[in-house]
Amino acid sequence: MTATIISGKEVASQIRSELKQEVDQLIQQGVQPGLAVILVGDDPASHSYVKGKEKASIELNFYSEVHRLSADVSEQEVLSLIDRFNRDPKIHGILVQLPLPAHISEKAVIQAIDPQKDVDGFHPVNVGNLYTGLPAFLPCTPHGVIQMLKRSGVQIAGKNAVVIGRSNIVGKPMAQLLLAENATVTICHSRTKDLTSFTKQADILVAAVGRAGTVTADMVKPGAAVVDVGVNRVDGKLVGDCLFDEVSQVAGLITPVPGGVGPMTITMLMYNTVESAKRSLVR
Ligand SMILES: Nc1nc(=O)c2c([nH]1)NC[C@@H]1CN(c3ccc(C(=O)N[C@@H](CCC(=O)O)C(=O)O)cc3)C=[N+]21
């Protein structure tokens, strides 16, 4: 058997064309969605992700501001900039690219963002709202994964879903979103004993570890939907957490890296920014 490859690029461009229409309508109503991105330091990968976000904003006709700050900027300067964006009515979404340099507290920065502009969905208010079923900005990567599955015709309700990874950015919210779709969810992590005994049961397997080669063919239930959230550079090449060539022989559906979850992450950021702009109409 050879898995069907779910193109994140295709699903993303479908969602972006839906968003484009919403943006046109919003602009007619006098609101142009505005996204502010703050990038600290000179990590090349972060610069490349932020370029992608800037490009997507411009394509969708957003108002876009990208602030590239030097690595030695103080935490206070970052907090002041966030405060300015919190009060700026042109800005509906604020994103601070992670990771930050060690002298700047990620916790302090995330908590400084107005929850109503927290389009990453990282603020504790949005996290709490998600966990209690209240309206919230959904974290972009896990939300993108749900959209890819749904738009590829994968039924989630009643399925066994296994998430490998328990980060605040992907693993934990991913599990919560799958639970909200009525999957039976298991979270595995670095201290899990006999990982394969869990992954073998998964109808939906999400790999969010950050280590190439974590998921091998023998760990996958035949016909499973396998979502690869990994972003790893190996010999200058971008690869996921799954051994794609062998896992795709066993899985029913699989997402590639690149061209899978990555483009969806950026698209769901655009989605959240449009949502925020829509909310500003009724505020
Ligand atoms: N506050 C914050 N929010 C984030 O959403 C966030 C972040 N910080 N820090 C880093 C991670 C990583 N991330 C990616 C986005 C797009 C691709 C993407 O589009 N990847 C392309 C390939 C890009 C390439 O070739 O480098 C693909 O998979 O096809 C990947 C990774 C967002 N992140």
From TrEMBL:
Its EC number is 1.5.1.5, 3.5.4.9. Keywords: Amino-acid biosynthesis, Histidine biosynthesis, Hydrolase, Methionine biosynthesis, Multifunctional enzyme, NADP, One-carbon metabolism, Oxidoreductase, Purine biosynthesis. It holds the Pfam family THF_DHG_CYH_C. It catalyses: (6R)-5,10-methylene-5,6,7,8-tetrahydrofolate + NADP(+) = (6R)-5,10-methenyltetrahydrofolate + NADPH; (6R)-5,10-methenyltetrahydrofolate + H2O = (6R)-10-formyltetrahydrofolate + H(+). NADP(+) binds at G165, R166, S167, V231. Residues 139-280 form the Tetrahydrofolate dehydrogenase/cyclohydrolase NAD(P)-binding domain. GO terms for molecular function: methenyltetrahydrofolate cyclohydrolase activity; methylenetetrahydrofolate dehydrogenase (NADP+) activity. GO terms for cellular component: cytosol. It comes from the Bacteria. Homodimer. Catalyzes the oxidation of 5,10-methylenetetrahydrofolate to 5,10-methenyltetrahydrofolate and then the hydrolysis of 5,10-methenyltetrahydrofolate to 10-formyltetrahydrofolate. NCBIfam families: PRK10792.1 (NF008058), PRK14186.1 (NF010783), PRK14188.1 (NF010785). This is Bifunctional protein FolD. It comes from Effusibacillus dendaii. The gene is folD.
